[in-house]
Write a structure and sequence with these properties.
Elements (H helix, E strand, L loop, with lengths): L2 E3 L11 E3 H37 L5 E8 L4 E2 L2 E2 H16 L5 E9 L5 E8 L2 H8 L2 H11 L14 E12 L17 E8 L2 H5 L5 H16 L4 E9 L5 E8 L2 H8 L2 H10 L8 E7 L3 E3 L10 E3 L2
Length: about 300
């Protein structure tokens, strides 16, 4: 074997020789130890990150709200709305058997009936994620995003779903059978209001000032409108805590409009507007059932979700 002489020895020290094979083995052992230490560090970091992720999971009920935008076209004998909405109704019905299911409503925007909002509620974040993995959830997304003949049917923008936790709720619970179930414009009015508070409120000011103002307005509204305002719920977006949603259910659109003109609402709007990054965005909707009529069909109004 080849031997190496140490050049740096102390004065008077005898020559030492080192076996090159032993040197290589020692180097390998040191490298393995370093590699093992790195791997253990990575594993520990991953486990710590998983623990933090688990700890950060929201506890309790999850509201999932999705904007559903269907292109109002009829091309090559394919009516986009008549493909997309039956697929949506089928998805809603199938989801009711999923573990952790609590509620699922489809709300049709009165201003543009090819747009709707899906409001589904789950017992936990885990239940919601398991629901997304179900075959009917996957099938629905494929059904409305890739249809023949040219693969462009049916939605005009990607499915945009966001998850929320409940801040407060007044009146008849959103979850359950207590709210009106009559379909179409002759039924109850379902209002979704997007509230975008300034990020500075979270970082520099009072982070609860905005949500507290919504909760107070909700309590005042439900007290002042017995029998008219059926539900008022405040939700907070999980990944953007400065963004909230108000869900309202009114007996009629005329009663809602009257309350919008009332002094309590005017004062609330004046108080909250300086805290907002964008104006309050109110969307008025009717409840969907099993039937959808669109403007591309030779059918007179009303269009959108209608009674059977």
């Amino acid at each position: 074997k080849r031997r190496w002489r140490l050049a740096d020895r102390a004065p008077g020290e005898s020559d030492e020789t080192i076996d090159s094979g032993g040197l290589a083995m020692g180097t390998c052992l040191r490298q393995l130890c370093v590699l093992a230490a790195i791997m253990l560090s990575v594993i520990a970091a991953v486990r710590a990150d998983e623990a933090r992720t688990t700890d950060q999971r929201p506890a309790g009920t999850i509201f999932d709200i999705t904007h559903f935008d269907v292109i109002p076209l009829n091309i090559g004998g394919v009516d986009f709305e008549q493909v997309a909405y039956p697929a949506l109704f089928k998805y809603r019905d199938a989801s009711q058997s999923d573990l952790g299911f609590k509620s699922f409503r489809i709300l049709n925007w009165l201003e543009a009936t090819n747009h709707s909002f899906i409001v589904d509620v789950w017992s936990s974040q885990e239940a919601f994620e398991e629901h997304l993995a179900q075959s009917h959830s996957v099938a629905f997304r494929f059904a409305v995003q890739n249809q023949p003949p040219d693969g462009i049917c049916c939605i005009g923008s990607p499915i945009d779903d966001r998850q929320y936790s409940m801040v407060a709720s007044f009146g008849t619970p959103w979850v359950g059978n207590g709210l009106p179930s009559k379909v179409g414009s002759g039924g109850a009015l379902f209002v979704i209001t997007y509230v975008d508070f300034l990020q500075e409120l979270l970082e520099e000011g009072d982070p609860d000032r905005g949500p507290d103002s919504l909760v107070k307005y909700g309590a005042d509204s439900i007290k002042a409108n017995p029998g008219y305002l059926l539900n008022f719920t405040v939700l907070r977006q999980l990944d953007r805590p400065n963004r909230l949603i108000i869900l309202e259910v009114w007996d009629t659109q005329s009663d809602y409009s009257a309350w919008q003109a009332a002094s309590v609402t005017q004062e609330f709007t004046a108080e909250v507007t300086p805290l907002l990054g964008s104006p309050l965005d109110n969307r008025l909707n009717s409840l969907c059932g099993e039937t959808y009529v669109d403007s591309t069909q030779p059918t007179p109004p009303p269009n959108g979700c209608v009674p059977p």
